[in-house]
Every structure is written in structure tokens, then in C-alpha cells.
């Protein structure tokens, strides 16, 4: 399909040639990436079925406590802020103060404070992406 | 006293021109944006500093080394101004000379340009060596209103055709070998003469070879591959479509460039790729399709990439509602190492089989990623992520900046490319956002349209813009990792488009 277009496109193509070049090119890219998207999904399905990741066994061991938190929903109310049971009051005060400083005193209300299981991983990623501002 | 006078005349002040001063202001503006506004300083500082150096009467910085002068086309020599043993001296500031006459449509304009070029060349010492009449004349995007023009070269009146090629001296030295004389048939790349000099070329002449020989773009891709986590893309493969949609900007700009009537089809394609927001790919394609436009295309691509945080947000906000900007996307699943490795191999095989022309880019991008993900080449991966990409960025940035000489930059053609470049960026951003909105019509699992703009590649700046804009609407919404999917897809998409263009225009290496 591409070869026939190649021969046709001159330095000054006609409007029709230009349109077929543009439409052909765009459709080509969309189709290739859509195919890649399907292939990637299939790889995902295949991997999850074949490997049977040992996540079910591994996860509870190191992350038992944090993973259980959202499900357990053991929360308390501190001055109208809903927070996890194991977050002490002074940490809540600290978070409120930090929020106030970061938002530069703009009106704000903290509704809930929850521990998160992947915060450090996310922070690590953020740091990596913000430290390499090349290209 | 006379010695002081001579010393004074040897200083660079006498070589200064108004264009240089204008370019100092441009370089100053870019440095200001980089240093004080922090617009991608890692890119803009080397570019701006290179631009400043390019517009100073430097010595041993940019000048080409003496050596063979080659024929640019197959044709017949109709004018030769050199003889064996003749000395050729280049001026302190080398100007960009026209390679052919016919790009100027008006006859009076062409006559004036040629006369002024010859006059200037005589004063400066920049010498026209040959005029070659091509066997198959080039066709112009806009046909000149004249076919012939009469000029006087070395007191001899000559009639030149608008398609005749002009070969200018590019280095000082003496003519040690003369291979072509008037009436001789020459082929493209044949040696016309050899200039000998004991001086070597300038520092940046050699560094810039990394661009000319297309070494830097694949090496940058190696580093980008090593830096990029394909996990978000693999976890949410439909974002590949956002990267594909953003490529519409490339094709729309091609149409715009063709419509302007200034450029031919291969030049228009090279300009269009600016919309991919991918500097290395832009350089790679411009080198292959329109080497004469390499400098403005590289400058436009890199400058606009640095200005992504300024260009994209207004378009993103205009095309989305407050409600859409607040969409929180479902957390991405964990992607196993094996999955990442299989993905890298599948993409490299699939894409190279489809567009072999894009092999250097796709191949090294996924080599870098494989080094990162395989887990047994940590040292190599770290070198690609840090030392290699940093060194290449310095060299690439300054090499791009060094092309920004006043007489090359302050031209209608360049300004048109800059204007088309920003249109390309805008359309690419809008296409990504609109594609995300379109996908939301059919999907239960909604996509925040702000991540669509990251389909323009520009890794990871565009993804960061999506994150920042998302947080402006909802401070608890983290879009960065979601935006990395289309961002990486955009890199692959732009490389595919470049491969398509190179295949269509038959520009293999």
C-alpha cells in the first residue's frame, strides 16, 4: 500500500495526492498503534494467566498492615477531620499546618487523612521524572 | 602606535553586524526564559548559549576544515573561478550563501540578491567557486517568474538559469588539486577541487557532525528509553490511541506548509514533524528530507518543546470542561518485569518490520528500555540515563544553537517554519485532548482528557503539564503516571510517522 504512494508523491503533488498522503499516513499510524494496543493487552492477559504471579502470597506478608487499612476503615474524627485510627493527633496538626503553608493561606478544609500503600513508590517515580528534564 | 592600530582592526568589533545584535537579544530572551522562568533550562541554556556563540565573530569554533569540495548535483560545470595554487581566504564571519537562484520568484529580487552576494563575497573574501548546471533541474514550490538571469562574475558576463547550483568556498587554504573545469561533466558527490590548509576545523564543526551524521538523535533515544517506564502504557494500552491521535498535528502542519506555497513536499513533511514535539526525530527527519532546513526545524522543535508548559495549557483548558478536568482515573495495575521485556521486544520487531526507515530511533529507544527493565545491566542503564544523555544533550543543544546565525535565522522561510511549528504543536495538543473525549463517549472507565495532550511526546514535559493542569482542577488528582502512557505512545507514534515520511519520500540512507 505504501509503495504505490511513494512513487506517486512528487515535489509538488496535486491536492488529491496530498489528501491521500495525509489520510493514508494518519490511518497508518492509528492502525499500527491500535494493533500495538491490542497486542499489548493480549500480552497482559497472557502474562497474568501464564505466570500466575505470586502476589496473592507475597502481598499480605510485607504490606499486611497498610493493605488492611482501607478495608478495615478504622477511622476517628479529630476536629471534623476523618483520619485513620493509627494517625496520632500531632501528625494531623502537622499535615494541617503543611497544607496551610503549601496553599499559601488560601481557604481550605481537610476532610479526611488516610494512609496510602504506594505513596513512597509514587513519590520515587515523581522524583525520577522531575529530575530528568532532558529532550 | 601602528601596532596598536593593527591590533584594534584585528578585534571582532569590525565584524559585527545588525543581525548579530538582534540574535543577541533572541539569545538573551531564551536565556531569561531558561534561567529565571525555568522553562526547560537543560535544553534552553545550551541552545541559547550556542546561539550567542554563533552570532559572535568567533575563531576556531564553527569554521569547516579545508578539504575536498564536492559537487551538489549531477551536471555540467559552466563557471569556474579558481586556478591551481590559488589562495582562498574566508571572512571572519561566514555568511550563508544561496545554493541556487530560483527560490526567489521575482527577477529583480534575484538579480539584487546575486549582485549583493557577489559584491559582499568580494569584500569579505567568501568566494564563489563553481556554477553547475544540473542534468535534471529541480522543481520549485513556487515557480520563479524568470528562467534566466545575467550577472558578471570576475568581469565576465554570464547567463545563469534559475536552477543552476552555486558552489561556494567553505574553508581557507590553497587550491592543491583541481578536478573540474568549465565544460566538465560531474556527478553528485564528485570532487571538484581540494583546498589544503594546515589548520583544522573549529570545535563545533566536529561536534555538529553528531547531528549531520545522525548520531545524536538515536543516542538520545537510547537515554530516553532507559529513563522511561513503559509500565503505565502497558497497564493501560488504549492510551496508545491518544499518542496516535496527536500525530494528526504532524499531518495538518504538512498540509499547512504545502498550502503556504513556500515549501515542496519533502520540506513540508520535515516541518510537519515539529508537531510530534520530538526533537531527535525532527532532526533525524529534517536531515533525511530537507537538510537545508535542519537549523530552523531543530530550533523550532526544541524551543517549542521547552515552551510546552506555555503553549499547551490554554488549549487544554479551552477544550475541556471543569468537570472533565476533575475526572479521577482508575489506578494502574502492576506490570510485571516479564511483561515489560516482552513489550519491548514485540514493539521493536513490529515497528521495524513495518517501517525499517525508523530503525535507528525505534531500535535504540527499546534497547535503552530493555537495559532498564532486564535488571542485569544496571550499570549500562544508569550510564544511558545519566552520563550519556546529559553529554549528548549538551552537545545537541549547543549544536542546534550554533546553527542560529543571524543571516540564516532572520529570514521569511525560518519565520514561516517557526509559525507553522507552533500551529503544529497546537493542533497535536488539541487532537490528543479531543481523542480522549471521543474515547470517553464509548468507555465506562473514563479518561481524563488532560492526559490526551501528552500524546505529543516531549517526554516527560507534556506529562508533567497534564499533571499540573489536573491538579489545578483537583489538587488530589494525580495524572502523571496516567499521562506517561500517551506520552510514550507519542514517542513511538512520531518515530512511526517519521519512518512513513522517509519511506514515502524514498529517503533511505
Automatic annotation (TrEMBL), chain A:
InterPro entries: Na_pump_deCOase
The organism's place on the tree of life at top rank: Bacteria
Principal location: membrane
Pfam family, one: OAD_gamma
Any one GO CC term of the record: plasma membrane
Localization (cell): Cell membrane
Keyword terms of this UniProt record: Cell membrane, Membrane, Transmembrane, Transmembrane helix
GO BP terms in the entry: sodium ion export across plasma membrane
This protein's name: OadG family protein
